[in-house]
Amino acid sequence: MTDDIQFNVLPGRKGDIGEIRLNRPKALNALSLDMCVALREQLLQWQQDATIKAVIIAGEGGRAFCAGGDVRALYQNRTHIAEIIDFFRQEYRMNKTIFHFTKPYISLLDGITMGGGAGVSIHGSHRVASEFFSFAMPETAIGFFPDIGAGYFLNQCPGKMGYYLGLTGVTIKISDAVALGLVNHFVERAKQPALVRALCEADFLGDPMKHVSAIIAQHHFEISATDLMPHAAHIECCFTASNVQAIIKNFQSLGNDWSKEIVALLSKRSPSSLAVTFQYLQRAATLNFDEVMQMNFNLAQAFMQRHDFFEGVRAVLMDKDQAPQWEPKSIEHLQEQEIERYFENAGPL
């Protein structure tokens, strides 16, 4: 058992609460292989334990709930591809266990929640964020794709908002996350301990999901103003396109300061990541969750066999020169058959 993830049982009045604490604050609670395995095994035990009525997951340190998978460790282990693939296998199996967990699974999202951090939270039943919450799926910036089942929940965002988040990797705050349905509730950091106490006092009569929702609603703070939604019409128009090149041209045609920022942002992303992510989101729209996860496993293995992921991690997270040398350098140089090869079946998850 690793100390990087802790499991506790909070005594309740009519049933106990399982508590998960991500405990790597210096690494922004980034997920290791051991953490993924331990979390899945514990959830499977709690699923069968009638005394456990619900599960709460939170991150230590105050800065981050979870900043994602530990991609620095993957980079350092880059000569051992089989071990890296096993990390993705265990992470994705954990994601599936969370998605299919039948008891209330309450994520207390206080701080940075990105990539793999979304995978241990958004697939659960109740997502509760604080005023310090920030969210992103930034994978295209490191030559990867929005994995951990993001093709499923990004397609549930209104209109083309999921495409916008998945391709650009922009960071959004609590108000936009609520508006997009990524977060259920806004509960201020100072009020979250009271929420946990209230859950421990619950009687869990009737439908436990509805009961937990009602308890959280008593601590919920209404929020309305958003930064992203005023751009919804332009996002819908620009991302309604047949390929990434057309999306970029649509933004260029707008000609305003905001659209120029988006064009500049997309120009820095891995061309391969953009093209694959666009097709991934299109294909995932008609799949169930387990099918999306299998596609993730196929894609992750394909990316590990190519240049851009390790180059992106080097440039953004290791050397931090912010100057990745993508291959190819331009999306115009990417052949359709090469994109298709990313989606080839690489074996069952």
Structure characterization notes:
Strand 2, helix 1 (33-48) and strand 3 (52-59) form a beta-alpha-beta unit. Strands 1-2-3-5-7-10 form a six-stranded mixed beta sheet, with helices on both faces. It has a four-stranded mixed beta sheet with strand order 4-6-8-9. Helix 6 (161-168) runs antiparallel to helix 13. Helices cover 46% and strands 12% of the residues. The protein has a single domain (1-349), classed as 2-enoyl-CoA Hydratase, Chain A, domain 1, CATH 3.90.226.10. It contains 16 helices and ten strands.
Task: Write a brief caption for the model.
By secondary structure, the chain is of the alpha/beta class. The protein is 46% helix and 12% strand.
- Count of domains: 1
Which fold name fills CATH's third level, the topology?
Answer: 2-enoyl-CoA Hydratase, Chain A, domain 1
Distance between the termini: 24 Å
Strand element count? 10
Structural class: alpha/beta
CATH architecture: Alpha-Beta Complex
Largest sheet: 6 strands, mixed
Contiguous helical run count: 16
At the fourth level of CATH, the homologous superfamily is 2-enoyl-CoA Hydratase, Chain A, domain 1
Main traits of this protein?
10 strands, 6-stranded mixed beta sheet, 349 residues
How are the secondary structure elements laid out?
Layout: E1 5-10, E2 16-22, H1 33-48, E3 52-59, E4 64-66, H2 71-76, H3 81-100, E5 105-109, E6 112-114, H4 116-119, E7 126-129, E8 134-136, H5 150-153, H6 161-168, E9 172-173, H7 174-179, E10 185-186, H8 192-200, H9 208-217, H10 232-239, H11 244-254, H12 257-268, H13 271-284, H14 289-304, H15 308-318, H16 336-342
Parallel strand pairs: 2-3, 3-5, 4-6, 5-7, 6-8, 7-10
Antiparallel strand pairs: 1-2, 8-9
